[in-house]
Amino acid sequence: QIGDPIQEKKVADLVLAARDEGLYHAITDCGAGGLSSAVGEMGAALGVRVELERVPLKYPGLEPWEIWLSEAQERMVLAVPPDRWERLAELARLYRVEAVRIGRFEASGRLVVEAGGRAVADLAMDFVHGGWPRRERRAEWRPPRLARARFEPGPELLPALLAHPNLRSREALVRRYDHLVQGGTAGGPLVGAADHGPADAAVLVPQEVQGEDPPAAALAVGLATGLYPVDPYLMAFMALDEAVRNLVAVGADPDRIAVLDNFSWGDPNLPDRLGGLVRASQGLYDAALRYGTPFVSGKDSLNNEYTDARGVRHAIPGTLVVSGLGRLARASEAQSLDLKRPGDPVWLVGATGRALAGSHAGALAGLPVTAGGLPVFDERAPDWMRALHRAIRAGWVRAVHDLSEGGLALAAAEMAIAGRLGLDLDPARAPVVEALSEAELLFSESPSRFLVEVDPAHEAEFAALFEGRPAARVGRVTPEPELRLGSWRWPLETLERAWRGELAPDPRPHRPAPEPYAAPAVRRTPPRAAVLFAPGTNRDGDARIALERAGARPERVPLSELEPRDLAAFDLLLLPGGFSYGDDLGAGKVWALELRDRFGEAVDAFVAAGKPVLGICNGFQALVKAGFLPGGSGPPAVTLAPNASGRFETRWVWLEPEPGAACPFVAGLSAPLYVPVAHGEGRLAVRDAEALGRLEAAGQVALRYARPGGGEPVYPFDPNGSAGHVAGLCNPAGNVLGLMPHPEDHVFSWQHPRAHRGERGFDGLALFRRLVEHA
């Protein structure tokens, strides 16, 4: 099962294109069991006949049963009406995907598999899906003895929790993955004043509905492995509860949530392993009924065991991740956890009990894993989650965060760190189900709770809504950079350093946002723009939307179907980002070879005619390595090399237009751009200082990385260490522009990473409108 992300992208593109044309009416992937489960499940109510010799093989010599059961990746099975097969085959050639007919569905009620002209399987579908005798296994689970111990930590516990590997900032890992691809991120994994706080969930807008204020989907996970040795039932219930409350915290409707279960477990043939699995399944079942969350899919990985040096067999701790998917009516309703304004009241929603068993706080304080009290799941929780959702939709809430690991103390610290504001809370005001000490109130991990910053203008309505529900005002937001929780207090700098290792730089602008750049004058015929894409390109859709929004008429054009003579029919050419051909020979290298060898003369003519060309990220890399940028004769003076950090970088950056740039798309920009980068090889490297000087003198440096407020844009403001902090280059004539950042991923206000804080402007749409003006 060796994955191939480039093939996966090609298959996904084909499936979406076929979906849009209505070329199939059923689909499933070849997962566990390969064709046997995919085809067998699709034909369960009808019947199916499969010819295995038609199945494409990676290598010869496979037996029929191996072909039938193979779990090779990146394969989909589609039910295609006969009159639509030729069009699907045509699309498959267009997207460079191998597509074959391997059989047909038929009203036989049988599963027939043929190989070499003979049947190797012929079974009644009723038998396949209902005729097998149920296996019986022995399952055992014995509840552990609950321990007793006093929980009396000191203030040092909170910094220790923030520094714990399971709880500390994951920013260094998050930024190594492109979480902004397809331009649909309305709420990313990092939020707050410095884009460094931990989001409860991601909020995503599919490209099919992107607009000014579109509907959105929220994606979250729940995990409570600390409770596994206490009771797998509690672990499972808590995991689903956390997934749901994470979704509700970002604004998702609690009545429109679906979930998936993801089990990693030991050998289910052993009674104790199976007993824990059964117990977890019972907890998951009860939690799903409590919250009304249907399971739309799931996955399991069993038999995760090893034998130690003494020959003793061990299973991994049973682990359950619950993934949740929710819906927001509008992207503008998405919430974040960072505190917004000093003086705002802060409410705690949900009841607190003694729930420290299996907790991180208990472990750091020296409690036995079964000591400290068990979580109790309140039947009223769905009701108060619905009430919170109503308050969010009404606009009464400014920030909200769920309480999970570390309880109230950790949630308050994360909100304060992310918002760079203080908090003064009195935990004694919290709604409780039993008498608790101050430390227990601060670190209890009771489920279904939220810390909410409320707009003071609507606090009366908020209070009336929660009348009769477990909710109370527990404090307020303060301007002082200090967290005060009852008798305990900590400087925010101490907490942020414990959690993150260092203070995050401030990315906020030091000037007001300019007025939006005026849209181009309406033309009778909008300029026709070609958005090229190759296998592995993944931002062609983003670019298409940006061009369309800027007034062009974009078309996604696969290189496989483009002839050199076709280029002349377009007014504008755009090479988007991604990993063309997997970047197997280097970033953009294969694409560059194809551009130069197949399209060199056509592109030269396109450029000579003065038509605009824009290369973004991988497209910029291809233009440079094909010699179209920076242009001119002689050996290459520049290239794009691996980032100075030695790793992939995803973050938002400021771009300052270069005064005197020869590029007219940039010369008319009156303000910097605030756009994301997502690359591993974006460092502009020059042959020598004189080469950079010549580019600057010729006006070919178009954009540079900048630091808000001025000063040297050291890392992370310059995310890759480019020579001269250059982010974009143009050719001598100025009509070919390449840049590593992604202006196409900031053309709507909700794409701004701090839109939740009311920040707007400095978007990439201004560049696209200038581009379209010159087409």
From TrEMBL:
Record flagged with keyword Ligase: yes
EC numbers on record: 6.3.5.3
Keywords of the record: ATP-binding, Cytoplasm, Glutamine amidotransferase, Hydrolase, Ligase, Nucleotide-binding, Purine biosynthesis
Region ranges (Disordered): 502-521
Domain PurM-like C-terminal: 1-114, 341-484
Biological process per Gene Ontology, one example term: 'de novo' IMP biosynthetic process
This protein's encoding gene: purQ
Biased composition (Basic and acidic residues): 502-513
Name assigned to this protein: Phosphoribosylformylglycinamidine synthase I
Domain PurM-like N-terminal as annotated: residue spans: 222-302
One Pfam family cited in the UniProt record for this chain: GATase_5
Domain of life: Bacteria
GO molecular-function terms, A-Z: ATP binding; hydrolase activity; phosphoribosylformylglycinamidine synthase activity
Organism whose genome encodes this protein: Oceanithermus profundus
Keyword Cytoplasm among record annotations: yes
Gene3D superfamilies: 3.40.50.880, PurM-like C-terminal domain, PurM-like, N-terminal domain
